[in-house]
């Protein structure tokens, strides 16, 4: 349960107004730090919920597909330029960010990942790297400001961040294919 | 078996939730950026141009209702801007040239509003207008000296202005057309000169044939 405690502490820390202001002042930090950290909060909290509601996770997310689908939907939602803008101007969207990323993306991801088959995992790797690659292209190549609240130059920085993320996933994915981990145990 | 069915139901629920979430979040898959959402909203609501006091390049001060009875073609700028505003103004000049001469000044007035009243006094505006062959009469450049009025207007029209570290501003740009009753009727892409000129001319012709 230590993990759940760390998760809770991190969650509360991220909710502190000065922390929110700081993390959201830079576009790339907003997207590539605050949002992933909220996801991690959910992943840390997952064991707590799995322990208390084993029945729920066991039946409603038996093969992991419902959970990972929910995770993908939430990720796609937060990739849109508009949602990031609205999180800054509309309080209800901001609240939704703090609820959806940990509870509808982080927890389902952790609960689903171990249940997924190898093929499903590969599909997720490919989907995510394609999605992030697409986002990189969108944010780097767009000649116009996509978010009204952030400068064009920040948008480009965000795009390069996406490219790095996509590349990392591709490299990791390839390593899982070509490296047989059992040989190195 | 029973557990598997629940699993399948869960997938259905998740997909439905996802569809609703993305549908609502994009106004029915029509607006993926806040800018599109803003323009769509303005075009739907047609807000009345708020009453503001303008001070133009000829140091004349008058309320916006001075233009009552005429269409007003508006852009928001500041003269210190080095990237998008000159482009915006050049494009505005192109639209100005494409509108039939008989309407200019009679049926329609062009107006560039500065959102940097501290810097853009009448003198600066008077110099700036010459770069774009604005005559200061049928195409006026003006500032809104009252900050509250200015903020209110920018807020009403959803113009978001962000100052950057170099003392510049970045903002979302568009052409705005206000009708003779002071109602915003069109928000146009400032990069589509031909299209903007065509739709403005069509509106003016329709008005003329009444």
UniProtKB/TrEMBL annotation, chain A:
Superkingdom to which the source organism belongs: Bacteria
Protein name: Uncharacterized protein
Entry annotated with the keyword Transmembrane: yes
Keyword Membrane: yes
Transmembrane intervals: 7-23, 60-80, 122-140, 160-179
Protein source organism: Lysinibacillus antri
This protein's UniProt keywords: Membrane, Transmembrane, Transmembrane helix
TrEMBL record, chain B:
Domain (Thioredoxin) ranges: 43-202
Gene3D superfamilies with a match to the protein in the record: Glutaredoxin
GO molecular function, one term: metal ion binding
Disulphide bridges: 81-85
Statement: the UniProt record of this protein carries the keyword Metal-binding: yes
Family: Belongs to the SCO1/2 family.
UniProt protein name: SCO family protein
């Amino acid at each position: 349960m230590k993990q759940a405690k760390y998760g809770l502490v991190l969650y509360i820390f991220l909710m502190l107004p000065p922390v929110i202001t700081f993390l959201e002042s830079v576009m790339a930090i907003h997207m590539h730090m605050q949002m992933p950290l909220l996801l991690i909060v959910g992943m840390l909290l997952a064991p707590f919920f799995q322990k208390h509601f084993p029945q729920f996770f066991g039946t409603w997310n038996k093969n992991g597909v419902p959970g990972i689908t929910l995770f993908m939907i939430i990720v796609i939602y937060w990739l849109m330029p508009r949602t990031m803008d609205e999180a800054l101007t509309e309080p209800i969207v901001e609240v939704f960010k703090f609820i959806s990323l940990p509870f509808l993306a982080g927890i389902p991801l952790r609960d689903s990942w171990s249940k997924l088959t190898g093929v499903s995992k590969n599909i997720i790797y490919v989907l995510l790297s394609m999605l992030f690659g697409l986002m990189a292209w969108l944010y780097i190549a767009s000649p116009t400001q996509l978010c009204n609240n952030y400068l064009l130059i920040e948008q480009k920085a965000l795009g390069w961040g996406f490219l790095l993320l996509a590349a990392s996933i591709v490299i990791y994915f390839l390593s899982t294919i070509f490296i047989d981990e059992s040989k190195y145990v | 078996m029973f557990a598997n069915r629940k699993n399948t139901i869960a997938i259905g629920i998740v997909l439905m939730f996802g569809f609703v979430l993305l549908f609502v979040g994009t106004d029915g898959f029509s607006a993926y950026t806040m800018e599109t959402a803003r323009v769509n909203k303005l075009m739907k609501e047609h807000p009345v141009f708020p009453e503001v006091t303008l001070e133009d390049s000829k140091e004349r001060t008058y309320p916006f209702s001075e233009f009552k009875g005429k269409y007003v073609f508006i852009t928001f700028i500041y003269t210190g801007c080095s990237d998008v505003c000159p482009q915006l103004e050049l494009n505005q000049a192109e639209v100005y040239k494409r509108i039939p001469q008989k309407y200019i000044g009679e049926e329609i007035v062009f107006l560039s509003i500065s959102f940097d009243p501290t810097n853009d006094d009448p003198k600066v505006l008077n110099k700036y207008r010459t770069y774009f062959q604005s005559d200061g009469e049928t195409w006026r450049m003006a500032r809104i000296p009252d900050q509250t009025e200015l903020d209110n207007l920018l807020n009403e029209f959803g113009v978001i202005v962000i100052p950057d570290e170099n003392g510049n501003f970045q903002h979302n740009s568009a052409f705005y057309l206000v009708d003779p009753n002071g109602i915003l009727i069109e928000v146009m892409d400032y990069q589509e000169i031909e299209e903007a000129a065509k739709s403005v001319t069509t509106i003016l012709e329709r008005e003329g044939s009444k």
